Every structure is written in structure tokens, then in C-alpha cells.
Amino acid sequence: LTRMPLGTCVVIGDPHVLTFDNPLGNAGDISQLTAGDYHLVASDELQIQGRFGYSDHFSAEAAMIGFAITGDLIANNKLVVEYTGPAKGYAGFKAWWNGKQILTSLPGFFYSADHFLAAKLANIDPDEMHDKARHTIGGEVGSGALPSYLFDLMPDIRIYCLLGEDTMNMVLSLRKFEGAMDGYCGNFNCLTKDDTLEAL
Fold it and tell me: Which terminus of the chain has fewer Cβ atoms in its 10 Å neighbourhood, N or C?
């Protein structure tokens, strides 16, 4: 084994989190129905926070409305995505790279000067990203491409966001870190039994 394994964490609906050790949801999921900012990934190398908030679609239970990622692994660059409104759908979402707004039109493309980020806002088929990526906001499986963000960050980090009316679903892929990992996406130790809300 010369490289650490790739893993996938999925945040969908109101929201249900499928951890790196349980990406298909075979062992249930982790749910956090209260609005707030929560660590999806917490480690010395990388920090990813998810913002869960109430919306027209989920008025009594929180859903994902934004995220931020930074850390040594990406040279302390910072990517932020959030639904700001008032427009509904993709036009109500904004993305920033190191404080500068990017991807302001559909389709839109952005490549950072330091080569750490390749990003696009485009119509993308959620089924190609994860079989649960459409959950609650993306229609039926096989119903085609929808407005989405796709972020590829060095090294080997991919974040797909399906954009709903005012919430989003996320599919996060990255390699297991050498050091400890924590957060709602789990500890990535290849064991599902300790991926519980109480343990995270």
C-alpha cells in the first residue's frame, strides 16, 4: 500500500450523514436536525465545517446550506459555499475562494493560480456522483443533470454539491489522513460501529 485509501462522505436531506466508513448507508446514518455550524472533518491537516439551517423545504429540521474548507493540506487556502438568497435555486448560492467570489454564472469555471482548485458550476448528473445524491431535492434517479458545483482540490479532494431551492446535498471524497480524523464524516478507521453521534 503506497497511498492511503479514498473514502466518500455524503450529506443529504435534513441532513443525514453517511460517513467515510459507511458511504452507502448500510449501517444507518447520523442525523443532526438542529441548525448550526458543525465539523464534518476535523484533523490537523484539514478542517471542513458544514452549516445546517432551516429552509422553506425543511422548516422544522435543519438541512445543509453551506460549508467551508481550509487547512495545511490545501496550503491554508479557503473555499466557502453558502446559500445567501434571496433568489431560489442555483442563483441564490455563492462560492468564494480566499474571499473572492467565483463561479458567478451557469455554466462557470474557475482555476486558481496556485493550481490547488479547479471548480465549475454546471448541470451535472447527481447519479454519477452517488446513488443517494438526489435525496429529497434532486427528483427521481435517472431524471437528468441539475445545477451543481464541482470542486477538485489538491491533493485528491473532490466536493460535489447538488443545489436545491435553498439547501444542498454534498458528496465529499478524499484520502484517509495519516493522523487522527474526527467530525460528522467519521474517523475513517474502516469500522462502522464507532460512527455514532455520541462518539463523534
Answer: N
194 beta partners: none
Greatest mean pLDDT among 28-32, 51-55, 94-98 lies in: 94-98
**Rounded Cα gap, residues 17 and 61, in angstroms:** 14
Residue 107 has a CB neighbour count (10 Å cut-off) of 10
For residue 15, the SS3 value is coil
Please list, in sequence order, all residues whose beta carbon lies within 8 angstroms of the beta carbon of residue 80, skipping any fewer than 6 positions away: 66, 67, 68, 95, 96
Whole-model pTM? 0.93
181 CB neighbour count, 10 Å cutoff: 21
Dihedral sign, CA of 35, 75, 117, 150?
negative
